Amino acid sequence: MNRSRRLKLRIFRIVVLVLMGAFFLMPIGAMLEFSTRGNSLASPRTLAAWSQIAQTPGLVKGIVISLQLAVITSLGMLVLLLPTMVWVRLRLPQISRIVEFICLLPLTVPAIALVVGLKPLYIWININVTPSVLALAFAYLILVLPYTYRSLDAGLAAIDLKTLSEAARSLGAGWGTVMWRIVIPNMPSAILNASLLSVALVLGEYTVANLLNFQNLQVEIAYVGLVNAGTSIAVAVGALLLAFILLMVLTLVGGRLQQHNYIPGQRA
Amino acid sequence: MAAATARNHAGVEVRMEALSRRYGPVVALNELNLTMAPGELVALLGPSGCGKTTALRLVAGLEEANSGRVVFGGKDVTDLPASKRDVGMVFQAYSLFPHMTAIQNVAFGLTLRRKTPEERRRRAGEMLELVGLSGFADRYASQLSGGQQQRVALARALAIEPTVLLLDEPLSALDAKVRSRLRDEIRRVQLEIGITTLFVTHDQEEALAIADRVGVMQSGHLEQLGPPTEIYSRPATPFVAEFVGLTNRLAGVVKGGEVEVRGTRLPLVKADTSDGPAIALVRPETVSLVVDGDTVPGPLVGTVIATAFLGATSRVTVDMGDATVLAQMPTSDAGALTAGTRVRLVLRKDPVLIARDEKASTDA
Q1: What pTM was computed for the model?
Q2: Cα distances (angstroms) measured from residue A195 to each of A87, A141, A203, A239, B185
Q3: Which of A38, A55, A203, A244 is the most buried (most CB within 10 A)?
């Protein structure tokens, strides 16, 4: 590639970065501006709306619940989906298309339709298992399936799963060891991406929780918004920033882990 | 170096008894019977789809047999999973765990066997030394060449002191030079340790060079099992004769325990072959070419159409009018045999095998 072409490519990248940055940051900036606005346009900036977050019990509870749901959903998704996908790839490749179809299906089902289907189940769960809001994790597991499936599928496709697992088994590893010591360490980025998507989706989920009469973070934000718009926007900005920080942390950690797997240009 | 590090492994007898594997209607392996002596290296050779890899995977426990038994040293392991069979395996594809260094790869099986860290380090170090890669212990797979990766894989397979060593075309992804060097190295290590080894390959040169015995497979069964020299010089079936090495297919007539090919009577590998028209399978190295002026048209006179330089030997293609014949000879003797030279063929009276089909030409 010659110098002028490289320069053009660089400029193009910077322009795209600036445009995309503006696209994402402007609404957040506007929200931040609104959440620090005083009672009138002439009033000085204030953090009153932000300080009220801690004094709004429903909000704090909603934050804690959503974080718990995010953790449960992410772990549940990994525990259920990853071994299933590995098993299908190794032992039942003929049903891989069916599994893919099932995993992508929630994308095509509107949340309201999902809730109508899930409502009787949740009534039963409420009576016979637990009335806890954490039961929402079941519904969220379905919601995150399409996104996490794609991410894990890409990760599995990037490694020679069959050979690596057979090599480990011939050395004496059981299936648990194969998963824990061979598969998972070789697809850190895919697992982190899938987890991040789950966390982001759970932290931002409103429809299912509201229609099933559970109070998570987004439902609480909506309630607070009815009486105190500033605080509700402050929490929304906080949730967005939290998701952003998580994304950065996971990307950095993922990048570091991935470095072990491929160091280009260093063949002996 | 290696002698000090290797352990004298008393190999065990490995038996495959009427081993069968079907995939739907396809019979991949059909009642395979094969007994490997302790410390023996047997190579399974055959074209793609002949069942050789299936046989190896059944021994490894990576596939389940439909019927038959696998026995290691008198112990039936047919129903044991791969993780409990105590086999060491080197795969065709590079199989080092990418997130581990070479020494961590070699030590992996030892960790699973709950060896102490000190013991793991010592044994993994010994194994890397055995394959000549002591200086590469801390490299990741991506930092090793293909040949080095396969050597580490061999060290990893041997580190656990397996009952049987299984090699599934471990050299096929390597270039010719590395391949030949690593082949010799595998044999050296195998002899040094004395481990019973099953080596699967589609490369006849590799099989003949490395094995104590070679099993030639076709359509899920063993066509012939024997020492490399026997497989080459006394093939049991036309398939073996044609798959292992090059063969001229020359029309002839079987009569009285001999076959007459273009006026020359040749002995038969199987003396009980019935009389009648037949195709004699004649090795190129048993065909000599004479340029002495006696080229009066006749059944054994032809014209050189090509000479291929193979290093120490050369292969000459002769047009006989109704057939093409290959002759292989020392390069020093082939110098004068340029295209267009009229030559007389002399067939050495080695026993030949008979194929009963219609095609009479040269199978190169």
Answers
A1: 0.80
A2: 20, 11, 12, 16, 46
A3: A203
